[in-house]
Amino acid sequence: MSLGLFFFLAVLAALSALGVIAQRNPVHCLLALAVNLLDIGVMFVGLGAVTVGFLQIIIYVGAIMVLFLFVIWLLNLQAEGFSGYLGLKLFGAIGAAALAAEFATLFLHTSRISTPGASALTQGTITTLGRHLFSDYLVAFEITSLLLLAAVVGAIGLARRPPLSAGLSAAAGSDLATAESPRQMSRSMSVSAEQQTTTPRAGSA
Amino acid sequence: MNNSLVTLIGRAMFGPAPLDHTDQAAAIAVACAVVLFAIAVPFASIVTWVERRVWARIQSRVGPNRVGPNGFLQWLADGVKHVCKEDVIPEEADAPLFKLAPYLVVLAFILPWAVMPFSSMLILADLNIGILYMTAITALTVVGVLMAGWSSNNKWSLIGGIRSAAQIISYEIPAGLSIFPAVLMTGTLSMQGLIRAQKWEPYHWFIFANPFCFVAAIILFVSTLAENNRTPFDLPEAESELVAGFATEYSSMRYLFFFMAEWGNMFIAAAILVTLYLGGWQIPRFNWSPALMNLLQFICFLVKVLVLVFVSMWIRGTLPRVRIDQMMSICWKYFVPIGFINMIGTAIWVAFFPHGSRLMEMAMFALALAIVAAFAWRVAYFTRRSRMELYFHPTI
Questions:
Q1: Which of A3, A37, A195, B300 has the fewest beta carbons under 10 Å from its own?
Q2: Whether the predicted interface score ipTM is above 0.85
Q3: Which domain holds residue B201?
Q4: How confident is the model at residue A113 (pLDDT cuts 50, 70, 90)?
Q5: B254 and B313 share a domain?
Q6: Chain-chain contact of B132 with A55 (C-beta, under 8 angstroms)
Q7: What CATH number is given to the structural domain containing A41?
């Protein structure tokens, strides 16, 4: 990847990142984030890590962005005004100043900007990636997968329906109050569920 | 500036070949864009004509038959009509996003044609991660659809967009898992590599290589139906509830873009299945000129893809729409676990039979023939029993 291309992508990444925090409408922020992630994917491709770049696009732009969008819609976030959050702004200003100082020292101590050599371009193929993942970094890879599995199990545990007896008290209709046994209850519940689903179809027919 | 984004696009499309001059790279990129558009649009449009004719026949109608022979040029007339219409942008819509959304969808439909393996030589770029590229690019459709649904500022559009996005990202998982068995057997992600690993005889196609692949191919087909919002999974465009889903507020060319992308994606999805499991362009070897061989391979590929497209039209004409909870439970409760079983099963199979098992190939092929025969027998039986009058006039 040439320096010019890198600067183009870097400026785009910085601008879109600014767009994420500077815009007022959450959906616009999210689309700026999508541009940012896409841009980083292109950067990966430019550095020769083609597989990682396309995986970045599939996972982040294709899936995770959409989940963010769903969350925004579920919480019904609206565009914010300019007022409020004074304390947060104060801490934000301090953090920004610290970051700016850090960048300044970094730039002052960097003597030369170099482009990646030819060896970097051959490291990003799917063969090399797979070989590294399953030999040199096997432990890290397995621990990561275990962590993700734990997250999945945790999410299922949180989203699991409560047991039938507890769930019925919340979901019980008036016709369920007289049912004697749990089995009867579940049967009458399934019948009512069926009725609910068949009614619109019968109406449309 | 010697290198630029154009260079990158050129390099991404043409593999590792270095492009040193910007003007050369720019010319190649523009040529790529033009060629992609010129390939993609007629294929997608011809699919619309085929679909309207086939669907009309299924419903005992005639369908478009006025423009050109058998209405073949109807798509051209429709295109001209849509271009001439007024482009309405709602007052309350988020105008920039509203305008941008169709282009994103079209982009996600144009770019996969770069790796479309029409024949052994007729391919724009044989990327070594071709199938991954295809999955990544088609994933961009979701962003466009959601953008369209949200920026229209219309409840139908929003619900349609959400349904479509939920459907696409859910079914991307079984579709992705169903790609792996073929990749495991070849050890490559390149489209041409996947096809070259198969032979022209049907029993050497990957779909018959082992039982897991057979199931994976079926899951891939159904998942692509759902990803393209096709019946029985066309909830995002359920006309009776949502008018036209995320495309409700669109008119003119932008509306056409959405539907061109939808029909084009049908072709792309069928092409992926043909590449992975149905032997691609493989034909018997003859000592003919390469041009003729490539033409025959192209025809072979096209016929296979169009047969699959026809099956999806057939399904659209015959099956009712599923409910949204049924659709989600099919995906998460059945397809995803079965997809994982397919992947692991194929890995074990490859470990035990690195060169494939001829016996199992034959057995799976016989099973497929038996299924097709049983289906044909049933169709013939019901045709006879209902005493319907059959008209064999393919052209009216």
A1: A195
A2: no
A3: 72-353
A4: low
A5: yes
A6: yes
A7: 1.20.120.1200
